[in-house]
Structure formats: C-alpha cells, structure tokens
Known about the structure:
Layout: E1 2-5, H1 10-21, E2 26-30, E3 45-48, H2 54-63, E4 66-69, H3 81-102, E5 105-109, H4 139-158, E6 162-167, E7 169-171, H5 181-189, E8 193-195, E9 199-204, H6 205-218, E10 224-227, E11 230-233, H7 234-245, E12 251-253, H8 256-272, H9 281-287, H10 296-302, H11 309-323
Helix pairs in contact: 1-6, 2-3, 3-4, 7-11
Amino acid sequence: xxxxxxxxxxxxxxxxxxxxxxxxxxxxxxxxxxxxxxxxxxxxxxxxxxxxxxxxxxxxxxxxxxxxxxxxxxxxxxxxxxxxxxxxxxxxxxxxxxxxxxxxxxxxxxxxxxxxxxxxxxxxxxxxxxxxxxxxxxxxxxxxxxxxxxxxxxxxxxxxxxxxxxxxxxxxxxxxxxxxxxxxxxxxxxxxxxxxxxxxxxxxxxxxxxxxxxxxxxxxxxxxxxxxxxxxxxxxxxxxxxxxxxxxxxxxxxxxxxxxxxxxxxxxxxxxxxxxxxxxxxxxxxxxxxxxxxxxxxxxxxxxxxxxxxxxxxxxxxxxxxxx
Length: 324
C-alpha cells in the first residue's frame, strides 16, 4: 500500500489515480472538513486526519510500503508564513520522523520554487541550482525551502530513505479545488491582462504523477529531480490560454506605476493587518522572474516525459468547463 498526502490537490489526486491504474493499493490522508468529491469512484482507504495528527499518521505510515507527500499550503505572499510553516515544514518533519521510525521511503514533493530562477530562456536551471537568481522570499518559497532542508537533514543525519521532486507549473484534469486551474479561469475571463515580464515551466500533472510513482523504485535516495516542462514567457502562455478559451487578446505590460501602487498596498496590508489577496507584491515579483528549468536528469533516471503543452492545456480547460 502507498500512503499519499494532499490527495484532493491536482498532483496528489493524479498520483492516486496513477497508482490505482497500476493496481496498487492506496491510502490517502483527508482532513475531516475536506470535501470527498475528489475521491468519488476511487477504491482507496481514507485516513482521516491532518499533518499534525501524529497517531493517525503513524498508523498509516506503518501500514504502507512508501509515502508520497504531496500536501502543501501554497500562498505566494508576504503574510501567512507561520501557517505555511506549520503545514509545509512541521508536517514534513512529522512524516520524515515516522518514515525513519518505520523504515519507509519518502517521496517528498517539493517545487521548482525552492530552486533559483533562470537568467534567461537559454540557460534553464538544473538540480544543482547554479547560476540563477534567488526567488522572492514569500511564505511559500521560504516554507517549502525549509521543508526541503528538513528532508535533507533527515537523510544525512537520521538515515531517512527519501527522494525530492521539483514539479513545475502543472496543468491537467482532476484539478478539483482548482489550483493551477484558477490561472486558466482568471486569464480567460479578464477584460485586460497585465503582463509580468517573466515566464514559467508548464508541465502536465499526469506526466509528473507518472514519474512521482516511478521515484518509489527508481529514485536514488538523497537525490532531487526536476519535473518541469515547456519553458515560455507568461505572455506566450497567457496568449495560449486566451486562444483555448476563444477570447481575444488584450494585454499590457506591468509598468512602474502598477508596481508602485502594489508596493504601497503591500505596506498597508502588513502594517494594518489587512487580508492579503492572491494578487500582491510577492506574486508580482515572482511573475517577473524566469522560472525556466531542465528535466534531463528525471528523463534519464525516472523515465520522465513531457507531452505537448497544447494537449495539457486543452485537457485541463475542458475538464474545468465540464465541471462548471
């Protein structure tokens, strides 16, 4: 049996479906208050609890042959660092401890956001993270970097058998929340797009899930693998989304005036303790970075493959539209 966390998220749910397709038995962690819709029709064992519930986690880890840790709190912003650390860092620490205790392999799903950004499209970043530009120190980047360090320390100091994966920006069906699908919906409906200057590496959650499962057997303990995709600017990516949605292209670059207004708003949020929205200074700063990566190592070691972005985009868009 494989124990999966984050099973209601895009990658976690796709990993579960990949495992079931292979005939594996699956146990999935599910918070009591979370909707079970993402698990409808799936033959699996639900473990009720969260990443702070050591007793439930201990029993699940003891009963499994490996753990795939997909759960994470994703907030690209300056606030919610403490909450992000509770989930991303302390939750990972609990699982790492239990995997050592029960001698189980941990496949830790990190993110390309723990690696530097690229200088340009011609120089994508590898697992070594050399020659890049530091990421914006928002709650997500900081907490996921710290979580990754927890795993590395357990490997070197406690003998944890673990593999670290770095997915890029994922698209695909079964985006129940939705997560990355929100970008598709927002870009499609916006009357005017304000373009950041950076870009991203877009991949298919089904391809990532396949190699995540392969990492159980093929991943080398202590190693990290990038599971990214097609590197392209946000302008090019968003144009593709608009075409998929059948919408005309209306866009303008984010200029200094918008950046200045966002900085002032960020200051007000932090000093007056106002709620921080999804669009903030951190998302703007991250959007101006080149999130470009190469997956050559995973291609060779884990059999990772990258399908056409047009296919991934169409499948993700159609799934979202059919669900509405």
